[in-house]
User: Fold these one by one.
Assistant:
Number 1:
Amino acid sequence: MKVRKKGIFITATGTDIGKTFVSALLVKYLRKQGIHAGYFKPVLSGAEKKEGILIDSDVHYVCSTARLEKNAEELVSYAFEPAVSPHLAAKLENKLIKKEKILEDFLRVSQEFDYMVVEGCGGIVCPLRLDEDPLMLADVIQMLKLELMIVASAGLGTINTVVLTVDFAKKHNISIQGIILNHYEEGNYLHEDNRRQIERLTGIPVIALVRENADEPEFCIKFG
Ligand SMILES: Nc1ncnc2c1ncn2[C@@H]1O[C@H](COP(=O)(O)OP(=O)(O)OP(=O)(O)O)[C@@H](O)[C@H]1O
Ligand SMILES: [Mg+2]
């Protein structure tokens, strides 16, 4: 599969695992290295809006953390207010998620940057449209031709969720660059063992560790 080198698709082992927190640190890190890095979020649910304009979202968090001076609306294709799965949020708002619009927006935004960090929604299995013409998040990842970065919690339960995520991605021919362990504590024997066993069971490297309230990721392997 052809892979676009200058970017990464951030997924996680589930919702609320830290995709936005980690994406913000990655964009901030790359920009500090002098790489003109940008951010894009194809589909957002649970958006806070005022008079139709996004006022708080993952996009706002990343832009303010990474000092990315962009209008949030330009960095997202679909933003829905209900905090539910995108296929349901779109249905509740009488909208249809179209992959052509996501591709068009992504290509427009990526023209402005040298490296794109794209944040998914939920985990790797995330329906965007479940009608006669279904669309899953995995279809979008394949369409954007980006490698995957999997954000996972360093704690209990992560071996199961990481292995399932890696297996699903491989089954869908999605290349995986690595895994980032969030909420990692040095010296915590569970976290340290999880790190080793995940690499052993999946063959995928842990690229970085992110501590509680970290200002930057701790890279184990060169990134960017
Ligand atoms: N390393 C960390 N240190 C402190 N807080 C964190 C860390 N990682 C995540 N959080 C917090 O946990 C919450 C969930 O994280 P985040 O919003 O990044 O998850 P997400 O995977 O992007 O969720 P969603 O699926 O809704 O997009 C947020 O309040 C975030 O600030
Ligand atoms: Mg998020």
Number 2:
Amino acid sequence: MIRKIFCLALLPLLLATPSQSSNAWFDSQWTGSGAPDVHYVPTPTEVVAEMLRLADVGESDMVYDLGSGDGRIVITAAKERGAKGVGIDIDPVRVREGKQNAAEAGVSDRVTFLQQDLFTADFSDATVVTLYLLPDLNLRLRPKLFEQVKPGTRVVSHAFHMGDWTPDEETSIGRYNVFFWIVPANVSGEWEWRLPGDNAQSYRLQLVQDFQKVKGVLRHDSGLRPADRIDLKGDRLELTFEKGEGPRAEALLFEGRVDGDVIEGTVHRVGEERTPWRAERVPGTKMAIDEG
Ligand SMILES: C[S@@+](CC[C@H](N)C(=O)[O-])C[C@H]1O[C@@H](n2cnc3c(N)ncnc32)[C@H](O)[C@@H]1O
């Protein structure tokens, strides 16, 4: 037990920036100019399986492992789940190892390894990003994630958090923790729309966003009404407002897909037909999700 606690406490140190005297450093026969920000330590096979399960990786996915080591995560994603993958590692020895392992696993046609610094790499076509870095590296990477990937991209991290971006799910396999997030669309700011057959009255919605958590107030009929429920999952937004008072109260449900400064979807009252809904963001009201 004591040994287990000792090992867990030492994990960040073991992963931390290598010193010139460490064996792992010399073992990697490093010849490049950019030094790794974290040592190579492989994710155990059962944790790889859990990461891919949590992200629900499938044939249509493009999985990027940032700091890919021997390539096991993207190779398993390709071999067992039919995905495509890119492994990015700064260490050329690891990149060579990844390529060789992919060839042995028969997935070289679906998996690529690139020797790059993950902080300057382009991973904008990822649908899934996997990480086993360090807490401060996850935080450094976070604004870049929001900058680069599409809303709805899934992010899985072995062992380490993303600061105040709370995970959508977390699990553990024995003593190993796995965290899962869905990158939310940026819905912050003010949105305007009119509904047909509503005397063409305008609605104005103000949304404040803390990663995937959103609060909002609707201005309509010259009154203000806080949203009863706002649910943001990737680029899917759902809003519920109670309209009217007392026994005449009725819920108005908006559902739509966020695409830049436009939301398109439907609106309906419970038990009634859906009608189209299109909202536009008021220019200049959008705020960055993560300024870094
Ligand atoms: C803890 S290992 C994880 C390996 C693999 N993702 C896994 O889970 O088995 C971290 C890897 O990140 C690589 N690395 C460290 N700093 C990096 C950087 N700035 N850019 C790209 N790779 C980096 C290291 O060479 C190492 O292979």
Number 3:
Amino acid sequence: MPAIERLDGPRGARIYRLPMRVYTGLEANAYVVVDGAYQALIDTGSGLPESDEDLAAGFEALRGDGVSWESLDRIIVTHGHIDHYGGLDYLRARTQAPVAIHAYDRRVIEQPHEHHTAVGRELERFFAEAGLDPAQIGEAMALYHTPHQRVLGIPAEAVLADGDLLDGRFQVVHAPGHCAGQVCLQLGDLLFSADHILPETFPHLAPESTAPWTGVAHYLAALDRVEALPGVRLTLPGHGAPIADLAGRIAQLRTSHLRKLERVQAARAEARTLVEITRLVYPRLRPYHALLALEKVGAYIEYLG
Ligand SMILES: [Zn+2]
Ligand SMILES: [Zn+2]
């Protein structure tokens, strides 16, 4: 089990970072925020057994600090990706705490199957246009469908928008690009950046043609907006350790963006289809990552116009 980290929040609030094994080889964070009598859980893990186990072990370890399923006042889902909302079913059986999610990702948790089918259709079209052959599209779609089959619909009790002050505490910053309904949450001098700003990796981006409010242009605009937030001392991401230097990390992300832009531009001069361009940019990727790369390069080609 990954170790829990305790952090100090504003006005004596306590924050606990609970890392969970969400997939093989990938950890994601849930955060418990204890602010006076108020308790919130930010993100839920993937809902896979190891992820639920780690979340439960985290709550068990915090019992001595007065944290329990029953005392939760709020669950916030930072965005509609399975490694952040997949634990909702597990949680719903244990707490009635109302769920908050941005309006653009509401359907992901309320009607997951309809949403998943709709996104699947767009992806299939995108893969065909990118130049994958039918057998490869079949394999790609099988990969897309596997991790989603368990999730039931959960109603969103609070639907978030940019500028909201949720529960009188969390300043909601809409940060689309990685995901349509991606939000960052500012609590005093802390910023919960979810997958918008990660310490180790550049967030995955797909072309907006496959899903509105995703893609490179939205992502970059949202980076600017987060950079302009006043008074952020510590940034708490959806994966990995806290980020002490937010401005520095944003600068690195911009550099990495420009490098990618150059590589895609160079590859585009030599190749025709998106599949060929992606192979030039990412020559050694295994199947699932190759599909993510295809989306990423597609997002860049769209951005370049
Ligand atoms: Zn994500
Ligand atoms: Zn994630």
